[in-house]
Design goal:
Radius of gyration: 52 Å
Distance between the termini: 157 Å
Number of helices: 11
Strand content: 15-25%
Helix content: 55-70%
Shape: elongated
Length: 467
């Protein structure tokens, strides 16, 4: 029976065991689920923290970009406000999208009324028809310096110089056009002022040329006075001798006309030295004529220097002109320089003789001034012709040109001389005359053997230049 009970209780025991096993498994599943849920919540929280951090970062970046965008907008508004030229931005149909303050000032209208209106409404008369044609041009190369008239604040037309350019968006698609305009009245006034300033500059330049010329002429006065004194002295002496001879001849002729005998006439002829007078008169007359010619040459040279023929191109011997300039300038020196010549007998060129003479005198005077304190000043003068151009080199044996002064040597009013001894215009004027009037060149350098050397280069036949 016991066995029977045991056999009868086995199914119950198995069921209990199954229940207990199921309960144990459920408990294990609950524990696993609980463990899995904690991890998921931790992951969710971690991801939420990361998303919040990203949101904060993006918010900071967005605020910075908004600030930069606002600064850019204020900058553009400031530029548009400060522009003196008119600016209009339109769409592809010619509807106004933006204007600047310059347009509002000229037209006397406000921005709200203009935005969205037709561009052509701004223009006056025939210019309005031209403005309606602007959209067609924006698909081409645009419009440059087109004169048009807009309606001013007082209803009167205001002329503008218009430029029209196409405008593209970020994708490169045509989205409108940009029209800029500058009042032509301002341009005309600016051109007029520029023209007047240029005329005043030319007048001042001519005055400076004449001033420098007169300054150089003043420095030559001592030498000229000495040169004039020599021919005038022997002309004066010759005239006194001729006056005495005239008195003797008159006395002799009076006796001849009185018809005295031949013996008395011969004695009188001997006592009055009539034969000697007749022999001496021709040399006296020749000397007087030579002196007069020398005076005339001196005067004519001074006239050419003080008032050269500005617009006339003539043939002249530049070597003769060079020797003459050296002769005149050397007369003004306390210590006449030793001169080494390396020039041909004659070189004929066509040009402005007066200008060339003034350049040579300025260069020579400048060279001698550089050797003012030397015991034995010396000049080396060379002239040669090459490839249709004549080169005249004037070298002194002074201290040369300082390197820091080399770039400024031809600048107006630049001088290293003491106050009162130079205006700083001689080399500047010489450079202008050589390059602009004579079609040549003027350069300076320090000679390898010492001293400064200036080279004047002239064409044998100058190009057509303005006098």
């Amino acid at each position: 029976m016991a066995e029977t009970r045991q056999g009868m209780n086995m199914p119950k025991a198995d069921a209990e065991l199954d229940r207990l096993a199921a309960a144990a498994g459920m408990e294990m599943d609950l524990q696993a689920a609980q463990t899995l849920g904690d991890a998921a919540w931790i992951e969710v929280v971690r991801r939420m923290d990361a998303m919040y951090a990203d949101l904060v970062h993006h918010q900071v970046v967005l605020e910075k970009q908004n600030q930069e965008l606002e600064e850019a907008r204020r900058f553009i508004d400031g530029v548009l406000e400060a522009m003196s030229d008119v600016l209009v931005v339109t769409d592809t149909r010619g509807r106004i999208q933006q204007v600047n303050a310059a347009l509002l000032r000229i037209t006397g209208r406000n921005e709200a009324d203009l935005l969205g209106s037709d561009l052509a409404a701004l223009f006056h008369g025939a210019s309005a028809d031209m403005a309606r044609d602007f959209p067609r041009h924006m698909r081409g190369e645009g419009i440059t310096d087109c004169e048009a008239e807009i309606i001013g604040a007082d209803g009167e037309p205001v002329p503008l110089s218009i430029n029209c350019s196409p405008r593209y968006d970020n994708s490169g698609v045509l989205c409108g056009m940009v029209i800029t305009g500058r009042p032509v009245g301002e341009l005309k006034r600016a051109y007029s002022e520029l023209h007047a300033a240029h005329a005043r500059l030319q007048e001042a330049q001519q005055q400076l040329v004449q001033t420098e010329k007169m300054a150089s002429l003043g420095r030559l006065v001592a030498g000229v006075a000495h040169e004039l004194n020599n021919p005038i002295s022997f002309i004066y002496g010759n005239m006194h001798a001729l006056r005495r001879y005239g008195q003797r001849l008159r006395q002799y002729l009076d006796v001849v006309h009185a018809r005295i005998d031949d013996v008395e006439l011969a004695d009188l002829r001997g006592s009055l030295r009539i034969d000697r007078i007749l022999d001496d008169m021709q040399p006296l007359i020749d000397g007087t004529l030579e002196g007069c010619q020398r005076v005339s040459d001196i005067v004519q040279g001074l006239k050419r220097f003080s008032a050269p023929r500005q617009g006339e191109v003539v043939a002249f011997d530049v070597v003769r002109l060079l020797r003459s300039a050296v002769h005149w300038v050397a007369k003004t020196c306390r210590k006449p320089p030793r001169i080494a010549w390396d020039v041909p007998d004659s070189t004929i060129i066509n040009g402005h003789e007066g200008h060339v003479q003034q350049i040579l005198i300025n260069l020579l005077q400048n060279a001698l001034d550089a050797m003012e304190h030397m015991q034995e000043p010396a000049l080396h003068i060379r002239c040669e012709t090459r490839d249709g151009r004549v080169r005249i080199c004037i070298r002194d044996h002074g201290p040369g040109i300082a390197p820091e002064h080399m770039q400024r040597i031809f600048d107006p009013f630049f001088t290293t001389k003491e106050v009162g001894k130079g205006t700083g215009l001689g080399l500047s004027i010489s450079y202008a005359l050589a390059t602009e009037q004579c079609g040549g060149a003027l350069t300076a350098r320090n000679h390898p053997g010492g001293g400064a050397e200036f080279t004047l280069e002239l064409p044998e036949t100058p190009p057509a230049v303005a006098a």
